[in-house]
Design brief:
The protein is an alpha/beta fold. The chain has helices spanning 3-27, 32-64, 76-79, 104-116, 138-148, 174-188, 240-263, 290-303, and strands at residues 88-93, 122-125, 155-157, 203-205, 210-218, 221-225, 269-273, 307-311, 318-320, 330-334, 340-348, 356-365.
Length: 374
């Protein structure tokens, strides 16, 4: 083929691509409709598979955990209509995507939509809005606040260690952790309201410097948060500043839950949300959490109402009674965590044998290559 013909054909091909590209951008020549239909079909199939997998997981978990699973999840509403008259439902999750901050909202979109499709009275976020190695930036904090404000129901958030305590790495020191904690308090807890599109008014501990400790009552169930974080909870014998902060916050947390139980002494049940996993599997408290745990144990016996300790931190689900013989009113549920982007829906009904029952698992495991779940 002569060079002039090659040049002419190449010119024609490039000109065609230019015109077609212009048509796609300006006049939408590309078949977006059919492709969207295919994409929606694939997404719908994935959602059905996720739902099926989660129901199977819930059934398996019920065999080894403190879950009252009905014979058929699909028929549970009709079977229990008489018992559910006094029940309320809330959703809990934690450990937001441990990825680049500019992709967090994209990855969370599916879970946000799934949670918003549920009719929950309240949503808990049990901390760790980032991983412990990523930069602690104001932009990351703002992104996470935007995510929490995307939920329809009110959102109660209790911070994890990744948001502030672990920010002292890279030789930035104790002062940087304190700075990050101050920014979180200013960003998330600047008024006496929950997060979410439809925030609720709360009481908090702002007068003593702990606005993140909040409480409210929904349907005669008392909900509260206490700032107890993972890792070492800032108990650091090598640092006077850190250890002092730990003791002050620990005392404030104990004072807060003690006052909250009394404030809601006529409640039918209590839910206490923290970040840290404070108990061994045997139910015994870990050393740095022993004062708080023992206070909660005693409060459960004093008020003799069902009490749920809700936490994150460990990235794996568990529902159990820490010490049924000694503390018969206390129950515990540990949330899923990254990379298993699952939320749990919990029904509170004090009239049942198991007053805090996980009735639904929402979401699925993150796929590192496609941002989809499976």
């Amino acid at each position: 083929m002569r060079p002039i013909k090659k040049f002419f054909l190449s010119f024609i091909l490039l000109f065609f691509c230019f015109i077609y590209g212009l048509g796609v951008g300006v006049y939408k020549w590309f078949p977006y409709g059919p492709l969207k239909f295919v994409q929606d079909s694939i997404s719908s199939e994935q959602s059905l598979q996720i739902s099926k997998n989660n129901e199977e997981l819930l059934a398996n978990l019920a065999k080894t955990n403190n879950i009252d699973l009905y014979e058929s999840l699909d028929k549970s509403k009709s079977l229990l209509s008489s018992k559910e008259s006094n029940s309320i439902r809330f959703i809990s999750f934690g450990d937001n995507p441990y990825i680049q901050e500019d992709r967090a909202e994209e990855v969370m979109k599916g879970l946000i939509n799934s949670i918003n499709n549920e009719k929950a009275s309240l949503i808990f976020h049990v901390g760790d809005t980032k991983d412990n190695n990523s930069p602690c930036t104001n932009s990351s904090t703002n992104i996470q606040r935007n995510i929490m404000n995307s939920f329809n129901a009110p959102v109660l958030y209790t911070p994890g260690d990744n948001e502030w305590l672990d920010c002292s790495g890279s030789n930035k020191g104790e002062a940087y952790s304190s700075e990050r904690l101050a920014h979180i308090r200013k960003t998330f807890f600047s008024n006496k309201r929950t997060l979410g599109r439809n925030p609720s008014v709360v009481e908090n501990q702002i007068i003593t410097g702990y606005p993140e400790n909040a409480r409210l009552s929904v349907g005669n169930v008392a909900f509260m948060t206490a700032h107890v974080v993972g890792g070492n909870n800032n108990f650091d014998p090598l640092s006077k500043q850190n250890t002092l902060e730990y003791f002050q916050r620990d005392a404030a947390n104990i004072k807060w839950i003690t006052e909250s139980f009394e404030r809601y002494k006529n409640a039918s049940a209590y839910v206490v949300a923290i970040h840290a996993n404070i108990l061994y599997d045997s139910g015994a408290p870990l050393l740095q959490y022993s004062n708080f745990a023992n206070a909660l144990f005693e409060l459960s016996n004093k008020y003799q109402k069902p009490v749920l300790l809700l936490n994150g931190d460990q990235h794996s689900f568990k529902a159990f009674q820490p010490n049924k013989e000694k503390y018969p009113f206390l129950h515990a549920v540990r949330n899923f965590g990254w990379p298993d982007l699952k939320a749990i829906e919990i029904e509170v009904n004090p009239s049942k044998n198991i007053p805090f029952n996980v009735i639904k698992i929402i979401g699925g495991r993150y796929n590192f290559t496609t941002t989809k779940v499976s």
